[in-house]
Design goal:
The protein is of the alpha/beta class and 260 residues long. It has 8 helices and 7 strands; from the N terminus they run E-H-E-H-E-H-E-H-E-H-E-H-H-E-H. The protein has a 7-stranded parallel β-sheet with strand order 3-2-1-4-5-6-7, sandwiched between helices. It binds nicotinamide-adenine-dinucleotide (NAD). Nicotinamide-adenine-dinucleotide binds at residues 13-14, 16-20, 38-40, 63-66, 91-95, 114, 141, 143, 186, 188-189, 191-194.
């Protein structure tokens, strides 16, 4: 199949729904084969089936990113099913609302386990496969909140800042193996994660209140991030590594919860 990522094999965590599902569809449309991993088995199977129904190569498997065993199985499946693994997208993530004072041990540990350790486990599992493939591209999903101070998401912001540090550290280690490692910092993207967050905001009425988070007057969806994912997954970004690409409609320059 022709396309910007023709022949590439991508493993995407947290891709049953939301941005990850969008990335899977877009990569397949550009010629890749994708393995979708998530905890949401039913939604993940549906996402993979919908890609196959359009003639694309997609397969779902259960992947808890906090499990090193699950990661080993996911990498092995990708190689067995589609051949050399050349793209990893560490996309799975969770968010919750609390600050340093109110964050429970459980919330802290779970957030770090999924958003931070999950990315480490993913890279540790995929790098040997990418060495076998002669190179690859790792794309770690951080968040634009790391560019600014954000109230009420202490554990989340901490974990997403660690993703940037891990990205730079890994990029510095694996350049000689032709493995590029970059991070993306999305702004406010309308996915189920944001629906859940909005439901948790006391007094917030989505019909009445806009969240003035950015300078561009648009509601972004996963597609607005998938374009950057395709660029980083493709050979168009051959000279690009160790970077954080902020795609946030200007949130980072406008200020979170500013007057807009
Ligand atoms: P989402 O909640 O729709 O998707 C996240 C997916 O991750 C879900 O399918 C969920 O089941 C999966 N997941 C959660 N824990 C997992 C685990 N332990 N193992 C495997 N999968 C797991 O949210 P989204 O907006 O699509 O988020 C995708 C990524 O983008 C996340 O890392 C998120 O933090 C990040 N992000 C989101 C926004 C936003 O505004 N939506 C902004 C910046 C960054």
């Amino acid at each position: 199949m022709a396309g910007r990522v023709a022949g590439k094999v991508a493993l995407i965590s947290g891709a049953a729904r939301g941005q990850g599902a969008s990335h899977a569809k877009r990569l397949v449309a550009e010629g890749a084969s994708v393995v979708i991993g998530d905890l949401r088995d039913e939604e993940g199977e549906e996402t993979a089936a919908s890609i196959r129904a359009e003639g694309g190569a997609a397969r779902y498997l259960h992947l808890d990113v906090t499990s090193a065993e699950d990661w080993a199985a996911a990498v092995a499946t990708a190689e067995e099913e589609y051949g050399e693994l050349t793209v990893l997208i560490n996309n799975a993530g969770i968010m919750s609302l609390s600050d340093a004072e109110s964050c429970s041990d459980e919330e802290w540990n779970r957030t770090i386990a999924v958003n931070q350790t999950g990315v480490f486990f993913g890279m540790r599992a995929a790098v040997p496969a990418m060495r076998r493939a002669g190179g690859g591209s790792i794309i770690n999903i951080s968040s634009a909140v790391v560019n600014i101070g954000s109230p009420g998401i202490f554990a989340y912001q901490t974990s997403k800042a660690a993703v940037v540090a891990m990205t730079k550290a890994a990029a510095a280690s694996y350049g000689d193996a032709n493995i590029r490692v970059n991070a993306i910092a999305p702004g406010l993207i309308y996915t189920p994660m944001i629906d859940d967050l909005v439901n948790d905001l006391e007094g917030y009425d989505p019909d009445r209140d806009e969240l003035p988070l950015q300078v561009l007057n648009m509601k972004a969806t996963g597609e607005n991030i998938s374009t950057t994912v395709v660029y980083l997954a493709s050979d168009e970004s051959a000279y690009h590594t160790g970077d954080l690409l902020t795609v946030d409609g200007g949130m980072s320059i406008g200020g979170l919860f500013s007057e807009g």
